[in-house]
Amino acid sequence: MIDFLFLDEGLCFSCKKERVYKYKLCKDCLDKLDYIGNKFDLSGNTCYSLYFYNDFMKRLIADYKFSRNTSLKEVFSDMIYRFLVDKNLTDFDYILASPSSKKTVNKRGFDHINLIVDDFSNKLGIRKLDEFKKIKNTKSQHTLNRLERGENLKGAFKLDKDIKGSRILLIDDLITTGNTALEIIKELKYMGASEVVTLAICSESSIN
Ligand SMILES: [Zn+2]
């Protein structure tokens, strides 16, 4: 049994067939990733996205989020961790996992971004900003028009902590319009954060 478990650890976390090559994925699965390592601006705030949201990435995220293959947190955590270290993006006071509402977490069974951040924040020695919470159940942003989107997120977040002058790294899985990230950034800056850098695992082509 022990031997079996040991062997299993060396297999790709996605296809579970080939041996791990990088980010807990095999070479075949890695080849299906579309790396962009994109840096862009969101209303004066720096954002990064690592991969294009292609079919493989869609499946990988769905497998993690909806099929609850929670071991995939290590794949995403590894991708983010290595990117941050490579780009020397480690000078932050806090890391914030883009918050999901309690209702979403209960329905899903776990807080998917939070698990990823848990996995690498310790390695970087940066504290998580757990005090920032989503207190309103919002609708999916993509079902709404621009005006409704702003309205939808108003008063959605709450923070019980003094973060004056802090540099914060915001982590999300997918950035589409950037609307949700921007709402969180605005809130953090209103609370006194001096800088907020966003890093998303992937993005759609529209924002690049
Ligand atoms: Zn694989």
Report on this structure.
- The chain is an alpha/beta fold.
- The strands form 2 sheets. Strands 1-2-8-7-3-4 form a 6-stranded mixed sheet, sandwiched between helices.
- A hairpin with a 2-residue loop joins strand 1 and strand 2 (45-52).
- The chain starts with a helix and ends in a 5-residue tail after the last strand.
- The protein has helices at residues 2-9, 27-31, 55-65, 73-86, 102-108, 112-124, 146-153, 179-190; strands at 35-42, 45-52, 94-97, 127-128, 132-134, 157-159, 167-175, 195-203.
- The structure holds zinc ion.
- Zinc ion (ZN) binds next to helix 2.
Attribute tags:
8 helices, 208 residues, binds zinc ion, globular, Rossmann fold, 2 domains, single chain, 38% helix, alpha/beta, 6-stranded mixed β-sheet, two-stranded antiparallel sheet
Brief characterization of the structure:
The protein is built from 8 helices and 8 strands. The protein has helices at 2-9, 27-31, 55-65, 73-86, 102-108, 112-124, 146-153, 179-190; strands at 35-42, 45-52, 94-97, 127-128, 132-134, 157-159, 167-175, 195-203. Helix 4 packs across helix 6.
The number of helical runs is 8
Mean pLDDT figure: 90
CATH top level class name of the largest domain: Alpha Beta
Ranges where pLDDT stays below 50 over 5 or more residues in a row are none
How many structural units, i.e. domains?
A: 2
Ligand species: zinc ion
Instruction: Tell me the number of strands.
Output: 8
The CA-CA distance between the termini, in Å, is: 47 Å
CATH arch. level architecture of the largest domain: 3-Layer(aba) Sandwich
Instruction: Give a quick account of the main beta sheet: strands, pairing sense, barrel closure.
Output: 6 strands, mixed
What is the rounded Rg?
Answer: 17 Å
The secondary-structure element order is HHEEHHEHHEEHEEHE
* Residue share in β-strands: 15-25%
- Tell me the CATH topology of the largest domain: Rossmann fold
Q: Which structural class should the secondary elements be placed in?
A: alpha/beta
**Overall body shape:** globular
What spatial order of strands do you see in the largest sheet?
A: 1-2-8-7-3-4
**Proportion of residues in helical segments:** 25-40%
